[in-house]
Every structure is written in C-alpha cells, then in structure tokens.
Amino acid sequence: MAGMSAIERQTLRGADVDLAADVTGPVDGQPILFLHGSGQTRQSWGKALVEAARHGFRALSMDLRGHGDSGWSPDGRYDLTVFADDLRAVLAQLDRPPVVVGASLGGIVGMIVAAADPAAIRALVLVDITATVDMEGANEVIAFMNAGSDGFASIEEAAAAVSAYLPHRDKPQSSRGLAKNLRQRGARWYWHWDPAFMTMGVDAKQEAEGPTVLETAARGLTIPTLLIRGGRSRIVTEEGARAFLEMVPHADYVHIDGAHHMVAGDANDAFNDAVFRFADRQVEGSSQADG
After folding, report:
1. Helices and strands (H, E) in the chain, number of each type
2. Which of 60-69, 168-177, 190-199, 240-249 has the lowest mean pLDDT?
3. CB under 8 Å to 240, separation ≥6 — which residues?
4. Is 213 helix (H, G, I), strand (E, B) or coil?
5. What residue ranges in the chain does DSSP mark as E strands?
6. What is the pLDDT of residues 256-274, one digit of tens each?
7. Higher pLDDT, 204 or 109
8. Using CA atoms, how far apart are residues 179 and 162, in angstroms rounded to an integer?
C-alpha cells in the first residue's frame, strides 16, 4: 500500500468556469475522479479520497459547477450538457483516463460521457443512480434542497434540517463539518450552491428528457461498470437496478444493506470495499493492486 499523502487544493478548468478540486495520492498513480451529487460538495468524498490514495491511486474530488467552491454558470445554465462539457474538459487535463466514481448527478454525467467517448474513462462506478430514477424519492431530495432556499438563522438550524431529512444518521456532536457546505450572506446561512441550480437546473430537465437520454447512455456503455445501490434507497429501486443490469449486461452490481441514497456516508467501509475491489481490478498487474 502507498504511504499517506497530503490533500492539495487545485483548480481545474471546466467548459467555461473554474472547478475546485482536492487531490491526493502518488502523482504517477492511476487517476480516480470522484463526482458528487446534487447539492453536495467534494467534501462528501473525504474518506474515500484518503482510501484511494492508500491504494496507490491519484485521487481527485471536485466540486461540480454551481456547487462548493467552483464557479457558477455565467448564464445560469445547469443542464446535463453543460455538466458533461465540464467533465470532458477535466478529462483532457489528466495524463490518462481515470476511473470515475459518480454519485447521483455525478454518476449521470459520468455515464453520458462514458457512453459517448469510452476512451476517455477507464471505468465507471455509479453510486445509487441508474437510467431510471424513482421520482417520489427524487422529489424528496428536491423538496429538501428547496426548503433551504431562504437560508438558516444559524448552522445549528441547518443541522436540524439535515437531521430531519436523514433521521437514520447519527447526529454529529459538532456542526463544524456542516459549515463547509454553508456560506454566510448577511445574517443568514445558505447551502453552498447557486440558487439558479434549482430554478434552471438539472431536475426539471431530467424529468422531461432523462429517461431517453439516460437509457441511451446506459445502453451505450462499453467500459467496465459497477453499480452500487443502497439497500434502503428511495432513488434507485431494486427493479430499477435490475433494469439497468439488463441494459448493461457486463456491469457488476453491489447491493449495500442498510444504506440509503447517500451510500458513502451511510456505510463508508462497505462502500470503500466495493469501490476499491472493483477499481483495483482496473489496474490489474499494477503495483497499486494490493489484493
């Protein structure tokens, strides 16, 4: 196993915005790129990033446009095309095709690019996202995101909103970690994403166009692919997972009991085991594969 590496803050160039990234692991390691879901930030991959470096990967976790410390769309556009263009721009800056690990929105973007340009991505891990989304569960996510649009009086109030949305999670003793996902404007705290993402974002477009776009992308996948589903997910049903495996018969599938949609946060050890068993196989014969 590789020694521990410091996490560096880097700026990558998207299609027309700068994208904030955390990078760690050996410079000459196989790249692995983590893409978060709607409303999240690169911070959601903290433990996976450290584990990737431990396995000898050059690990990158970036904020999607309109999220975290990345730039906001100058024209307020947040459709799937513009996210895919960002990913293509980032892939061109890497020295070789990465393994892409994408949760929710990040997985959708990875799937679209991998289907259109399979040579650009070494392998794809889809974290609780397939070509079909259960809209009841998706609407719960959208409602949670919209509920914070007017901001919070304090970080503690935001923490209470998260606890109500994720009652299965143990409430952290400190709210300091949550502060990374918030920004203070005036006297109130706001989630760290562009409000235009919710008004002109991917959600409505995905509902209208998603099934055709995503099913076409899924059926076009030829690279090694792993689907990880949270056993208690309200976004991806077991039927949706089976339908995806029919569309992508070469894909591997891991079902993690007890995990909800945000699998990495709900069952981090099981998540990391699944990801790196798969990712290590993609660098077969390399010194990075540690069995």
Report:
1. 11, 10
2. 168-177
3. 130, 132, 133, 134
4. helix
5. 8-13, 18-24, 31-35, 58-62, 99-103, 123-127, 182-185, 188-191, 225-230, 252-256
6. 886 765 677 656 778 899 9
7. 109
8. 12
